[in-house]
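User: Structure please.
Assistant: Input sequence and predicted structure:
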Amino acid sequence: MLLIAGSISTGLVLGLRYRVFILLPAILVGALAISAVSPQPLWQAWTSVLTFAVLLQISYVAGALLRFATSSGVTANVPGELSRARSH
């Protein structure tokens, strides 16, 4: 149960903060950590790794969609030095 909650929360945080390129390193680090800590035989630990990877990817997509839904996409044009520098 802790693996499921950890995978989902990690995926949501990664989806809110990073681009898709973070998924492969996160899955590799998680797989190494699960394999190192698990008292189960290796083939049973890999089912935990597979569960972690699938839930991480699903929750990453949910986090990315949440980031997309909450971003307005409209930027304010504030007059000042910075906006004048861009127009030249």
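Residues 2-70 form one domain.
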